[in-house]
Records
---
Amino acid sequence: MKKGTETLTFVFSLIFLALILTFYFLIFSTVATKTVETKIVSLNSISDNINLLNYLRTPTNINNFTISDLIIYSYYNKDYQDLEGLSENIFNKIYLENKCPVWILNAKIKDEEFFDVDSDFSLEQLRGGVRYNILQLFGVEPLRYTNAQISIPSFNQDKIKISLITGCLR
Amino acid sequence: MNKKGDIFMPTFAIITLIILSYALFALVIKAGEDKTTFIGQSQAELLKTYQKAEQDLFYLENLVKYKTHETINEFSKNGGLKQECNARWKFNSNCEPDFENNFIELFKNKFENSGYDIKEIKIQDNNLILKFNLDYSKKFKNFNIDYNLQPEFKQEIALDFTKLNDLKNEIIKCINAQKDLTTCTNEKTSVSGDIIFYTIENNKNILILTDKLEFKKIDFKFEIDQKDTGVTIQVF
């Protein structure tokens, strides 16, 4: 009889434990919306911001302008030829074809785009690469896109917003 | 089963109940506050703050340069006076040239809606010197950023204030000595009735926005009404 009580206690405890675990599992999986979340803050755009700022500070041979001055000068004189050539030359050296094949630079005033230039690199070479294909096989976008933005003053009160979008291989 | 075995399972079940209840309380019931933790958030925020400051410094540097050019253009057209004087010098009145102060006032007006407050402004050796106070302090849940900058910008003014002040004193002397103003100074003049027009050539280029943006040399122009100079001639 004593042995029967012990067995019964054991079985009931086991059932009780199972019920507790099931109950809390259900509670935690449905009610617990606030979770302890750990995220690694992305610092990717920081290097693009530095590149963009250095680009704008770059001196040119035109009237002792910096690129920033040249953007404003080109905007008011509606002539973007020098700016386009210089921008392509600078960014094609910073963002190498086999690492960052995509870069797009644009300038806006009052949300209206007045200038844009982008890389003329082809993605074909990357598509043939092992890394590119493995990433795609696992459903991962092979290029990581980041965006950097800097404002420069114009000759009236409107700010000119310069944006740089880059796509680099992960 | 021995005696220890008798109590193990019920004790284990009760302890599990206590632990899970506490976990429920701590993570669900008590979790009114956000428990999200960002690894590297403080470092990232610090870098972002430095970057924002760098961008502001770059923006201000350019803004000061362009506003100085705009000011030089208007100041030269106004003959160093306030706009309402129509470039006509009249001593001992509101239209007496006070070059440095008038330049600073004009610059401040142009800078007014820029979104930045000038802390200090002065002209020294034909350079405009500006000081700003930039505060990037921020408070976060687990940390604070205290970052304050007081940058100073020095922008060359394409005008010779010493020369202008000397000319002003020379003209006053000429009027007092009742000399002919057209020949009394070395500056280029033209006359129309009682009005003498002065043109002081400036060999420095400034950026000017007309129908397009261009580099131009801007002459400093003003006029004086010989019959209404504002100078009281002292007769001894």
Note: Helices of chain B lie at 3-29, 41-77, 99-111, 161-176, 181-184.
---
Amino acid sequence: MDRNVFRFRDVFCALVSTNLLIARQHIVAQIINLYIWTGCTLVIMGYIMQNFGLASNYGCFQFASIVGAVGLFEIYNAAARNIMDIDGDRTISYYLTLPARPATVLLGMVCSYAIVGLLLTILILPLGKLIFYNSFSLVQVSWIKFAITAILANVFFGIFMVAVTAHVGTISKMRNIWSRFIWPLWVLGCYQFSWAAIYQLSPCLAYFVLFNPILFVMEGMRGALLGNPDCLPWGICCAALCFFIVIGWHYAHYKMKRLLDFV
Amino acid sequence: MNNVLLKIKNIKKRYGTKEALKGVSFDIYKGEVLGLLGVNGAGKTTLSSIIATLHPATEGDIECEGKSIYADVATYRYKIGFCPQKPNLNPALTLEQNLRLSGSYYQMTKEQIDARLAQLVDQFDLKEYLHQQANVLSGGYKQRFMIARALMHNPQLVILDEPTVGLDPHIRRQLWQQIRELKESGVTVILTTHYLDEAEQLSDRVCVLDGGLIKLIDTPDKLKADFKMNNLEDVFIALMTNDTVPADNS
């Protein structure tokens, strides 16, 4: 049994290395794309939209949401790559015959996704500081809370990516990834507004939104970066994310087993 | 016989209501080349992927050296190398990276990987394409790399699922020679193939599957003698066109 634990660890580390080796080929392009997208959004939300009545601190509010959602934006590409592999070369079949449990292979996918997501999350911070400069004070940032939230968020996004891959399954259904999974969770996940704002509007809707895991990423990240007192308590956000990680993992594993019929 | 490597015991596989394997049992001996033959849909690929532990059996068991492989799948997987019908080298990596990483998945040290890589590159004549990516390769080279990857960790048993399908005749012959060399080095080979001449040339025994069941299993010479035919192709056609099986094979 102990021997297998070490074997699984070694296979896991080798799989993560493989995935990171592949991710390294695209990372510069990913960073450029992220900077363009985020830069444009922040300039519009932080400066231009103020002429239409948006609050002066909305840019920073939006920036904290973007930092939390960086891992979410990459899900479409990663899930699409996995689906094309499953419908095409099936390199995953090779990994599923390695001397480890299939869960090790899936965990390797989650972990490498989370590492890349975490890197992008950290790299986006200087851009926000550059654009908002004095409006975004680094003194108010709780770095420990930021690190924990970023890790939990990106692990969750990694699991979400595997679950979406398994749920969609074939290239012909790939168009569903964005419209049926990422988009509704994203826009209803308090990306552009706070949970307190929905609660003021409709408590019923606010309680319904609590089923959306993205909400806890957004509120947790805003709590960590802005120290916003209107956010949901940071500890609750982390606990909820841990809960969704466990649930999401079991779902992703179950759906992958059904899709790939592994041992 | 006491040199049984694998004992396939009443393996069944269902996909929904379709039964791909209906209870397959036979032994695989150490050091032999076993040819798995059958028409399309006979269950060859299903059986080889179950032996490779890519997919689970719905019922039945496989024993390796007396122990169920499902009791410790990881240990069993160290003993096998699987080369599926469709090449699944990682297209984002160079072929050298594919082979090196394959060694690292099996806990090989860097020195072991270097030595084994050099040996396989020489054996399969891979040097020219080592730094290329998989998508630039011809079918023949893809198959060579696939077999080399399956052999990277020195497995006792190699499962080759239609390794020569779609290849030019001279490339097929080269792969035949490499499969013979595997047998000479003591590796047990399960060879799934459509080509009867290939099975006749390479196999110590052939197992004919039909509709998810074993129709017969024996040496090519014995089958030709029993059916009073000159080659395995004629035996196969006779077997598939009528249900008569010689008495001592039934």
Note: Chain A has one domain: 2-260.
